[in-house]
Every structure is written in C-alpha cells, then in structure tokens.
Amino acid sequence: MEIVVGAVSDKGNIKPTNQDNFLVKIYEDNNRDIGLFVMCDGMGGLSFGEIASSISVKYFKEWFDKHYERIINEKDEKKITEFMAKIIEVVNTKIRDYGKKESVKVGTTVSALLLCNDIYYIAHVGDSRIYKINKEIKQLTEDHTLVAMNVRNNIMTEIEAKNSAKKNILTQCVGVKENIEVFKERGKINKNDVFVLCCDGFYNKFEEEELYSEIKKIKNIIDNDVLQEAAQKFVNKVKERGEKDNISIIIVGFVSDEGFIDKLKKHVGF
Question: Are 238 and 211 in contact (CB under 8 A)?
Fold first, then answer.
C-alpha cells in the first residue's frame, strides 16, 4: 500500500505563537510504505511549549531515520511499541532538563503512530488523539485528563466530562514529572482504514461524528492533495467556530492497486 497524507497546523485565532508540532515521515521499502506520524501539543509560557513539542518531533525523526530498516525487519511486534515508548521517556528527560535549565515548567503531549507491515503501532501521553475510521470512528488513544479518568472510574458521565470546566486538566504530559506511563497499542491495518491524529484545539470544536461524516464525503481519497485539502478545510471550520487554541490535524489514508476509494466504498458502503 502507498500511504497518502494531508497535514495542517495553525496557530489559531488568539495565541501569538503555534506551540503544536507534528512529524510526517514516509519511507518506501520493496514497493511498500512505512510511515511515522507524530502529533505534539506543547505547553508553557512564551515559546517554551513550542520548544518542548519540537524536541519530541526531533527525537522521533532521528530514531526513525536511523532505525527504520530495523523496524521493518523486527519480528517481535511488542518490541516496536516498547521502542516508541522509550523515545517518549528519553524526550521526557530532555524536556525536564531544559525546564530546569530555564527555570520554567514546560511540557507537551505526544501521540505517535507508526504504520509498518500492515500493523499500526501507537505510543502516547497526554490528550492529543489518534482515531481510526472505517465502518465506525474509534479513538485509539486514551486521554490523560482528569475528566477522562473520572469517566473511566464511573465518577462522571461522558457528557459531564465534555462540558466540564476542568476538561483540559492533564493527569500526564511529557516533560513535567520524572516518571510517566506511556499508553501503548497496536493492531491490524485494513486497506480501507483512515487514521487521524489531532490536538485538543481541533477536536474541541470538531465532534467525532462530524469527523466521520466529513471523511465519508471525500470522493477521491487517492492522493496527498485531496487529503491536504480536506485537512485545511477542517482546520478552517474550527477557526470559524472560534477555537482559541492552536489547531493541528494529520489525515492518513492508503492507495492500493484497486484505488483507495473503491476499497472504501466496497467495505464501508459509502
């Protein structure tokens, strides 16, 4: 399968700087693509959040550039998510060291998605999200927020969490505490899957149901330009709705010999 992607990051309506950073990296190996996608939402005064998120992107890029051949040939799937989690732990130390040096509290979310050998791998900390869209939309990551924890513990309903003034309080992010617990996940890729990575500045004003519906409306998911246009359209909608935060999204699809949209129609009934 050939990976096709569209990605947009915008500072939004209010903030003077964009503290989000993302990585899109694709290699071709024996007529198949391997892709790494990382979404980071930095936090900190002035430009410190931007530095934190850029550190995360830098280390994931270096790891992928240096080790992608080893990743392709790795037989133990569990080891790949462990490799990705280790990168986040290294980044956590680097950002903490930077914060101590500058005497500031700084951090970032990290949501990393690796697509390799028909398997997706995820390593994640924070409240940025990774979705998989097929016959339904499914959030693959776990929000590390106070309200999400309360929902999981049956203290709060999902509706209450969505409307809570505390919905943006993180229980975990990268760069603040010495020890972090990295969320890890892996699963099978279907040729008709679409993956979406986004920060909270996107999904705060763009519901899951709407995202699913808008992806269904895309008639020709056959190249990067189409997905890039869709990503820009979605970000523009969020800005029009008055989102105050930075806004970032990555949309990832696949092209096979049959054509991605034909597979999508066949399997999902679009």
Answer: no
Taking the alpha carbons of 259, 260, 262, 263 in that order, is the dihedral positive or negative?
positive
Closest by CA to 115, choosing from 34, 191, 57, is: 34
Distances (CA, A) of 261 to 7, 211, 266: 19, 17, 8
Cα–Cα distance list, 231 to 30, 90, 197, 216, 251 (Å): 29, 31, 11, 14, 7
Strand ranges in the chain using DSSP code E only, listed in sequence order: 2-10, 20-29, 32-43, 107-108, 110-116, 119-125, 129-133, 137-139, 183-188, 194-198, 247-255
- Predicted local distance difference test score (pLDDT) of residue 192: 87
pLDDT in tens, 104-153: 989 999 999 999 999 999 999 999 999 999 999 999 999 999 988 988 88
- Cα–Cα–Cα angle for 15, 19, 22, nearest 5°? 135
User: Regarding the domain delimited by 2-268, which CATH topology (the fold level of the hierarchy) does it fall under?
Assistant: Phosphatase 2c; domain 1 (3.60.40)
Contact 10, 230 (CB under 8 A): no
* CA 132 to the chain's CA centroid: 11
Helix axes 224-240, 208-217, angle to 10 degrees: 140
Query: Across the strands, what pairs with 99?
Result: none
- Domain boundaries of the chain, sorted by first residue: 2-268
Q: Are 262 and 25 in contact (CB under 8 A)?
A: no
| Cβ-proximal residues to 109 (8 Å cutoff; 6+ apart), any chain | 39, 40, 41, 125, 126, 127, 128, 170, 173, 174, 199
